[in-house]
Design a protein that fits this description.
Rossmann fold, binds adenosine-5'-diphosphate, Arc Repressor Mutant, subunit A, binds magnesium ion, 12% strand
């Protein structure tokens, strides 16, 4: 109807500023993973014996969230698959598959074995061994700290002859908690992923920006702001969140360019990014975070009492470990306060104020 202003009249005006939206997904795998060449080379070295009829080396890959552990490892696997048909590759995210049974099912699926119905874990494991032992295999268990039992690890270590097990976690301490019977068979090499510096963070984000957007869409100060904020939260995903949110903001205002004001609008929604990451926490750890959110700035001991009162289980040691995990994941900050009648104590602060850390 000409002359009537429709709700969707604008749809063709503001053509999307985003050329390749997938490039802004956290799971998107770029061709190259700069600044992780050393780590990738090392992982390749651990796999190489498999090419010579020997067994490979196991690795525990650790480091903070959002710094390329998954991406760098997946690129190594991709290269390996392109290089050889003689080595099976299994990649499992233990957040999605968190029990021995689920992990073995998924493993069968990735190995191309379909007749899993009515098979129990022992039978599934037999199938996997008989397939893998005809060749060699690399198993990657990402977010290994999310698994509820370790029987599958024990079985793979025992029953597969030529293999590498790569375990990825944000928590190096996870290894200490591991059963001695598994630890002694695993004897992993440790590969630590260090944090990116601001320059590296910016380069990585620029690479993604070039894939995701038409050239000239981004104002220089706007991108500078994204890079600065991502360096502050020390998590590449924070930068990807800002790029996407800012671009959508600009689009909704029918702009042809993403400007600093759009990034500022995105920064003010940074809380959503942290809330989203919270979904990755275990229930119990999230409960503790809720406690801190409701009542920030308390002593760790008092917090533990509240936790117990609300039905929280486990020792003070376990509680401290969960608190440490929340700190590592940057949900909270711990402040050591010395002296006083009560001696030293730790004050637990909430971290959603990240955007308040520095007003720009
Ligand atoms: N060196 C890098 N080069 C390109 N992209 C990277 C690099 N490091 C991280 N990324 C990207 O940042 C995001 C987070 O990385 P990811 O591997 O998921 O982190 P982690 O597994 O350590 O939590 C992913 O989208 C990943 O592609
Ligand atoms: Mg990861």
């Amino acid at each position: 109807m000409p002359g009537v202003m429709g709700l969707f009249d604008n749809v063709h005006m503001g053509a999307s500023l985003i050329r390749n939206e997938q490039a802004l997904d956290y799971e998107f795998l770029p061709k190259l993973i700069p600044f992780r060449e050393g780590e990738q080379q090392y992982l390749a070295t651990c796999i190489k014996p498999l090419f010579n009829q020997r067994s490979g080396r196991n690795v525990l890959i650790h480091g903070l969230p959002g710094i390329g552990k998954t991406a760098a490892t997946r690129v190594v696997l991709r290269d390996l698959e392109e290089q050889s048909d003689d080595i099976y590759v299994v990649y499992i995210n233990c957040w999605q598959h968190n029990t021995t049974y689920k992990i073995l099912l998924e493993t069968c699926d990735q190995l191309g074995y379909k007749f899993t119905q009515n098979k129990n874990t022992t039978e599934l494991m037999k199938v996997i061994a008989s397939i893998c032992n005809k060749k060699a295999a690399v198993f990657v268990f990402d977010e290994i700290d999310k698994v509820e039992d370790f029987d599958f690890l024990y079985s793979l270590l025992e029953d597969i002859f030529r293999k590498c097990l790569f375990l990825i976690t944000n928590y190096k301490s996870w290894l200490m908690e591991l059963d001695e019977r598994i630890k002694s068979r695993l004897t992993p090499e440790l590969v630590e992923f260090r944090q990116y510096n601001p320059h590296e963070t910016k380069e990585i984000l620029r690479q993604r920006l070039d894939i995701a957007f038409h050239p000239t869409v981004w104002d220089v100060p706007a991108f500078d702001l994204v890079a600065k904020k991502a360096a502050e939260v020390k998590d590449i995903r924070g930068g990807l969140f800002l790029m996407k949110t800012a671009a959508l903001e600009a689009e909704s205002k029918l702009q042809r360019k993403v400007a600093a004001e759009h990034v500022q609008a995105a920064v003010s929604r940074m809380d959503e990014f942290f809330v989203k990451n919270q979904e990755e926490l275990e229930d119990d750890t999230r409960k503790i975070l809720d406690l801190v959110t409701r009542d920030p700035g308390r002593k760790i001991g008092d917090l533990f009492h509240s936790y117990q009162k609300e039905g929280g289980k486990g020792s003070y040691k376990t509680f401290q470990r969960k608190i440490a995990r929340l700190e590592q994941n940057r949900f909270i900050t711990l402040e050591k306060s010395g002296g006083g009648a009560g001696g030293n104590t730790t004050i637990v602060h909430k971290n959603s104020d990240i955007k308040k850390l520095d007003e720009f």
